[in-house]
Amino acid sequence: MTAIIATTVFGIIMMFTGLFVDNKKTVSSIAAVLFVALLGINIMELSDATGPALRSMTLSLLGTADNTNGAFPQLLFNNMLRIDKMSMWFGTAMTACTALYILLIGKEFRKVGTHVAEYFALIFFILCGLYILTAYNSMLMLFIGIEIMSIPQYVLAGSDKRNLKSSEASLKYFLMGAFSTGILLMGITLLYGATRTFNVTEMVPMLHSESLNPLAISGIVFIMVALGFKVSAAPMHTWTPDVYDGTPTAFTAFMATIVKAGVFFAFLRLFHVSFGNISEHWLMILAIVTALTLLIGNVTAVYQQSVKRMLAYSSIAQAGFMLFSVLAVSSNIAWNGIILYGVAYSVATIGVFAVLVKMKDYTYDGFNGLAKKNPLLAFVTTIFLFSLAGIPLTGGFMAKYYVLLAVMHQGNMMWLVIFALLMAAISVYYYFRVIIAMYFKQGDPELTSEVTMGDQVLLIATTIIVILLGVMPHWFLMPA
Amino acid sequence: MDIYSILFWFLSAMAVGSALGVILSRNPVNSVMFLILTFFAISGHYIIMNAQFLAVVNIIVYAGAIMVLFLFVIMLMNLNADVEPQKGMMIQLAGVISGGTLFLVILMGLTTAKSELIDTKSSDIGLISNLGKVLFTKFALPFEISSVLFLSAMIGAVVIGKKEHIPASEKAEIV
Amino acid sequence: MHLLLLTADQNTPFNYFPVALQLVIAIGFVAVMMGATHLLGPKRRTKDKLVNFESGIPSVGNARQPMGIKYFLVAILFVLFDVEVIFFYPYAVNFRFLGAEGFKEVVLFVAFFFCGFLYIVKKGALDWED
């Protein structure tokens, strides 16, 4: 909760930094410091030693009485937020990913346009939405959280104004996003009509399997469609390739990773906490959506010629795997599964994008011969792609293992698990095409900027994180 | 048939009719005008449900401000050329079938729903004083947090809408 | 008339009866006038009559010119502050009831908006000449 306020304040600081500091390098440095500070605040709030005091201090600063003594779970602001250990853990993990993203890709913002400070401010605001989505306890907060995450993304998508594709991406994303927000609101309204409450936990006793109000079930389906749109699950995925392709690469890396994981956490929270008791009414629909997402994402990715577009389809395919954690209603490892998957997927994808922004040519041929020109770049890209494909000893393998295991515990979805394994095998093909281009083809790839010492250190650190996620996944999971 | 029912059916017919006008009229300016009519009809519904504040806000914000924005957007476009692509018959048919199916399913769902929770006439819940009491006590956090939304919208307007002045020194760096 | 007097003190939809009446009369008056001039006036459809009237001189160019984005920027900023003002209305009605707590909330909300306003002015988004 301190983090929500801190990220808002930091966002406003960045807004004004852009007005008073002309040098873009200074702006980037200030932003990097603020992101690391935000991570520090998150860790402080998470830790048992300093957390309660920090939360009490923030509450007294706001003039609200603290009736929980800073202990978890905290029900705050008339039950609008429910902050527990899990949401704090996820928020901290995503903040760490964002800090990594800023350090790796943040300096590329300068190439996008003139409003560098504003881009950082918008990312702070997106994080504010993410924190709300990790801790919402009311449908109203879910809606506001999703909106706070979406609107800055529309702006970031269109930030490269000289590029027609960027404007197209922004317009497409905005129109489709606004439409899906309308569907989300409709779903919330119908659900409110059936349960007479916005509260996520209070509506549970109103939803019985045997006498389920048709209003409720249509509301649930509407919400599922809207959230499925935000995480680009098929058949609501059609905006994803164009938007991810047209958006400046530096921002695609953020939209495809941290934002997506954040919405998935909200998805999981709503469908497990509120609709978990009536899962037989929606589980089959979601299973079909999952199967479609896996199929369309993986099969279409095979036919792409541009690595950036391939990564857009790969993000659809990965969303299919993340949907498994939502499907595993009765499993208690689903929550850890989404945290592990979110982190493993985000770190690996940010790594690939950090290499991609350095490339001049985004097609597969543009990667030809990278291993000769810059062996380090080629090596780290290989590890990141291994992780995305789910090769053992990388984070992607453990993440896939966790989410599939969660569904297997449930017992009735074996066909889907087998289908997912088949699709994972297909995904190896298009990820390995990049590796083959880098190592076994001749060419002279052009880089847009030099790979500095700092870049090398950061890329190696990211690689180590990816491998640690695969070898020591319990380090990243919440201690029980 | 009391006065409520007459008004309800009149406003409903007006809302549905003008909403159809929005999507059926060829001229985008006409579409906007039909949309304004739809908003007025919905405001009428709010008044029947005794939600007077919503009715007024709907007129001021939607029919007033947002529709002006819509007109601006249409004026930004080039209206001379008839560039609207003509959709094929099959696509139209597919749209009608899928949309119609959704409509039927929702209709069936809503007609069989228990609606005893909904009280349309004798409710004071939409009056401005009651709304204010709830908004500033129970829903204070969403109210405050929505300002973050407005801030990002302001940044978005400036980032997207403001003309950029690129100093000569930086031009070389970008290109 | 008695309908109006009966319901004057309560907050019911019938409070809006005079508004509706006025609306009907206003729209009806305009409709009747427009219809009447159309029916009663003489009709001479010549080529010169149907041409757009532009202060008596021949019209030049096309009226459907794309307009500047500056209007749009100002309009969208207007909408944002318009919505802000809307929130004051329910607060003003409950000013006494909400007391110091409500005042704090509104001041915080306005502070956010003031930050945004300062940003817009400093950024020059409202400057017409650039």
UniProtKB/TrEMBL annotation, chain A:
<feature type="transmembrane region" description="Helical">
    <location>
        <begin position="457"/>
        <end position="477"/>
    </location>
</feature>
<dbReference type="GO" id="GO:0048038">
    <property type="term" value="F:quinone binding"/>
</dbReference>
<comment type="function">
    <text>NDH-1 shuttles electrons from NADH, via FMN and iron-sulfur (Fe-S) centers, to quinones in the respiratory chain. The immediate electron acceptor for the enzyme in this species is believed to be a menaquinone. Couples the redox reaction to proton translocation (for every two electrons transferred, four hydrogen ions are translocated across the cytoplasmic membrane), and thus conserves the redox energy in a proton gradient.</text>
</comment>
<dbReference type="GO" id="GO:0042773">
    <property type="term" value="P:ATP synthesis coupled electron transport"/>
</dbReference>
<feature type="transmembrane region" description="Helical">
    <location>
        <begin position="116"/>
        <end position="133"/>
    </location>
</feature>
<dbReference type="InterPro" id="IPR001750">
    <property type="entry name" value="ND/Mrp_TM"/>
</dbReference>
<keyword id="KW-0813">Transport</keyword>
<feature type="transmembrane region" description="Helical">
    <location>
        <begin position="6"/>
        <end position="22"/>
    </location>
</feature>
<feature type="transmembrane region" description="Helical">
    <location>
        <begin position="250"/>
        <end position="270"/>
    </location>
</feature>
<dbReference type="Pfam" id="PF00361">
    <property type="entry name" value="Proton_antipo_M"/>
</dbReference>
<dbReference type="GO" id="GO:0012505">
    <property type="term" value="C:endomembrane system"/>
</dbReference>
<feature type="transmembrane region" description="Helical">
    <location>
        <begin position="29"/>
        <end position="47"/>
    </location>
</feature>
<keyword id="KW-0520">NAD</keyword>
<feature type="transmembrane region" description="Helical">
    <location>
        <begin position="335"/>
        <end position="356"/>
    </location>
</feature>
<feature type="transmembrane region" description="Helical">
    <location>
        <begin position="282"/>
        <end position="303"/>
    </location>
</feature>
From TrEMBL, chain B:
<keyword id="KW-1133">Transmembrane helix</keyword>
<feature type="transmembrane region" description="Helical">
    <location>
        <begin position="6"/>
        <end position="25"/>
    </location>
</feature>
<feature type="transmembrane region" description="Helical">
    <location>
        <begin position="139"/>
        <end position="161"/>
    </location>
</feature>
<feature type="transmembrane region" description="Helical">
    <location>
        <begin position="32"/>
        <end position="49"/>
    </location>
</feature>
<dbReference type="InterPro" id="IPR001457">
    <property type="entry name" value="NADH_UbQ/plastoQ_OxRdtase_su6"/>
</dbReference>
<comment type="similarity">
    <text>Belongs to the complex I subunit 6 family.</text>
</comment>
<feature type="transmembrane region" description="Helical">
    <location>
        <begin position="89"/>
        <end position="110"/>
    </location>
</feature>
<dbReference type="GO" id="GO:0005886">
    <property type="term" value="C:plasma membrane"/>
</dbReference>
<keyword id="KW-0874">Quinone</keyword>
<dbReference type="GO" id="GO:0048038">
    <property type="term" value="F:quinone binding"/>
</dbReference>
<keyword id="KW-0472">Membrane</keyword>
<keyword id="KW-0812">Transmembrane</keyword>
<dbReference type="GO" id="GO:0008137">
    <property type="term" value="F:NADH dehydrogenase (ubiquinone) activity"/>
</dbReference>
<keyword id="KW-0520">NAD</keyword>
<keyword id="KW-1003">Cell membrane</keyword>
UniProtKB/TrEMBL annotation, chain C:
<keyword id="KW-0812">Transmembrane</keyword>
<keyword id="KW-1003">Cell membrane</keyword>
<dbReference type="InterPro" id="IPR023043">
    <property type="entry name" value="NAD(P)H_OxRDtase_bac/plastid"/>
</dbReference>
<dbReference type="InterPro" id="IPR000440">
    <property type="entry name" value="NADH_UbQ/plastoQ_OxRdtase_su3"/>
</dbReference>
<keyword id="KW-0874">Quinone</keyword>
<feature type="transmembrane region" description="Helical">
    <location>
        <begin position="103"/>
        <end position="121"/>
    </location>
</feature>
<keyword id="KW-0520">NAD</keyword>
<protein>
    <recommendedName>
        <fullName>NADH-quinone oxidoreductase subunit A</fullName>
        <ecNumber>7.1.1.-</ecNumber>
    </recommendedName>
</protein>
<dbReference type="GO" id="GO:0050136">
    <property type="term" value="F:NADH dehydrogenase (quinone) (non-electrogenic) activity"/>
</dbReference>
<keyword id="KW-0813">Transport</keyword>
<keyword id="KW-1133">Transmembrane helix</keyword>
<comment type="function">
    <text>NDH-1 shuttles electrons from NADH, via FMN and iron-sulfur (Fe-S) centers, to quinones in the respiratory chain. The immediate electron acceptor for the enzyme in this species is believed to be a menaquinone. Couples the redox reaction to proton translocation (for every two electrons transferred, four hydrogen ions are translocated across the cytoplasmic membrane), and thus conserves the redox energy in a proton gradient.</text>
</comment>
<dbReference type="Pfam" id="PF00507">
    <property type="entry name" value="Oxidored_q4"/>
</dbReference>
<dbReference type="GO" id="GO:0008137">
    <property type="term" value="F:NADH dehydrogenase (ubiquinone) activity"/>
</dbReference>
<comment type="similarity">
    <text>Belongs to the complex I subunit 3 family.</text>
</comment>
